[in-house]
Design goal:
mainly beta
């Protein structure tokens, strides 16, 4: 019987030009799991309060999660959670709580239009890839270079909502041409073959 394990975090970045032609595709293993994710696992494991640092840098905790108000499937235009992209090049640290320099949603200079974050699943028993995907359109009038990506979850204790980054990767400089689109997939791989 094959052993089962959670192997790693992976990401894929695809860039298309304004005509829809694929100009870059990279798939890599992430260097990304952050302390916020590990602390969540430990809190659930022990049935204790969850201590974390939100994307604004505030130290907080919740004593219980309201799962109906938690998630990572951000709607289009929302750059608070889901998959986020940025221009920062600061090395990943276990204590990271936000992107070094997030690219905001919009169509102005230095902005990308955030599509919705949706589920990404590839199930090839016994290997399962479970994660997220999101596309970003560049309608800013100039090329934009992405250097970092991250996963942020929205959590709630029933009365307050927080945004908590659980993964961050610095990637090779990826230029999204004006009028182009970049799609980022981020996933956990279980039972790697």
């Amino acid at each position: 019987m094959k052993s089962r394990n959670a192997g790693s975090v992976l990401y894929e970045v695809e860039v298309h030009d304004k005509d829809g032609n694929l100009i870059k595709r990279v798939i890599k293993e992430g260097d990304s799991i952050l302390g916020n994710w590990i602390n969540l696992f430990m809190a659930i494991r022990a049935g204790q309060e969850y201590n974390f640092q939100d994307t604004g840098g505030t130290n907080a905790y919740v004593s219980s999660l309201s799962f109906t108000n938690c998630g990572m499937l951000a709607p289009a235009g929302n750059d608070s959670y889901g998959i986020l992209v940025g221009t920062g090049t600061t090395e990943v640290s276990m204590n990271d709580y936000a992107l070094a320099n997030k690219i905001p949603h919009g169509t102005g200079s230095g902005q990308l239009s955030y599509g919705e974050t949706s589920s990404y699943n590839e199930l090839n028993d016994p290997q399962w890839d479970i994660g997220l995907q999101r596309s970003f359109d560049n309608n800013s009038g100039a090329d934009i270079t992405i250097n970092e990506i991250g996963m942020v979850m929205k959590i709630s204790d029933g009365s307050s909502t927080y945004y908590v980054m659980i993964a961050r990767d610095v990637i090779s400089a990826t230029t999204v041409p004006n009028g182009g689109r970049v799609t980022v997939k981020y996933w956990f791989r279980w039972n790697p073959s």
